[in-house]
Structures are given as C-alpha cells and as structure tokens.
C-alpha cells in the first residue's frame, strides 16, 4: 500500500465522506468500486458513505455510485456567469447547424440564450419561445420573427408555464426544438427540477421534427426530480463533456453527439 493510500485508509468515516463529497462536486459523479480501491476500504463502507451523503441531501445516489446534485435555486444572472466559455462554444456550434427558413421552438436556459445570440444575423428564422430572456435576445436578431407564448411566469425558469403555455405548444408543429436540461441521468432520461418545466419540455420535444439538446459537461450523468423524456427522443446533443463513457451510452441509443 503506497503512502497516499495509507493516508486515505486512515481517515475516519466523516473525513472520508468529506473527501468523497469534494470529489463529487469537482468531477460530477463517482463510482463505489474505484473509490473502495482508492481508499483501501470495502465497497460496503463506500456505499454507507454515499448513503449518508445522500440522506444529508448532499448528493444523489444511483446504482453503483453517486452524482452531484443539480442546484436549481441559482438566480438566472448568477447561472449566466457559470461555465460561460462552454456555453458560448455549445451555443455557437448549435446555431451553426440551423438552416435558413427554420422555425424554432426555443426552451429557457442560459446556454440557449447564447445560442440565440450566436445565430447569424442574416439567418431568416422564426423563433417561438415561452422564455423571457430568450425572447429578449431574439429581438436583437435583425432577421428573426419572434413569437412569445403566454402563461404564468415561473421565477426559477423565467418562462411561461402552466396549462395555457402547454396547450399553445401542443398546437404547434415546428422544425426544431432547442432544449436545455437540468440533467441527463444514468438511465438515459432527461430530467428537470420543476414539475411544470418538465411537462413544458416534454410538450416541446413532441411538437418538433428534430430536437437539439444543449448541455454543459456537468449536466451529463446528473439527475433531477422529474423525468422529461427518454434521451432517445433527442436528435443531436451539443455538449462540452469529454466523458467518453456517457457519450458512448448516448450515441448507443441513436443520438448524434457534437462535442465542442
């Protein structure tokens, strides 16, 4: 046993859990078996650590490991400053794939605001959205027709929600849905933290001929409370993730992946 492993093996359960929590918050997820080997303890001990962290509301457990919790309570303007270079790259790559004359049904997220801003100013598009910030960004586009769907505005999503918004979306048939997500879970489902937002996103996917999912690296492998749809309903994922295992799993269900 090398010196580093001896030091890890000597940690108390509380100290070990603190190290594991830091690892999860940095990497996004951990697996029990490699942790057990690294710390020189049994997998049962690691599973107890992960259970304790989950019971404390600090992580989300899944079979064989645990993931960082999605934190939905961040203010929109705070979220806009996080991972800004990743969001710019993702938004730019997705924007470059949009053809002239397309009708877009556009979700609410800070990454998607970057997408709207990255659309070529000469691109003739129709942008339909429930999101306040997306509509505001789209109004700055000189060639876009902008349609704002109404409903009750959610403070977290800064988007119209509720029956009126969902009914309006169900009446549409568009070329592309441009979607954000709170997480792409290990079971290959898209997740949302808000129930009404999950219903809205689900309706948007079903209203589109193709769905482009825009997700920063930390969203892959993450979970959240409500299921939106199976990942298999997505056409293309634009992401900054370099996690080859989860990208392979997504490709294996038939999704095109554009890693930026």
TrEMBL record:
Ranges that cross the membrane: none
Domain HTH deoR-type as annotated: residue spans: 13-68
Cited Gene3D superfamilies: 3.40.50.1360, Winged helix-like DNA-binding domain superfamily/Winged helix DNA-binding domain
Sorted UniProt keywords: DNA-binding, Plasmid, Repressor, Transcription, Transcription regulation
Pfam families: DeoRC (PF00455), HTH_DeoR (PF08220)
Domain of life: Bacteria
Claim: Secreted is one of the keywords in the record: no
GO molecular function, one term: DNA binding
SMART domains in alphabetical order: DeoRC (SM01134), HTH_DEOR (SM00420)
Origin species: Shinella sumterensis
Record's protein name: DeoR/GlpR family DNA-binding transcription regulator
Any coiled-coil regions, as ranges: none
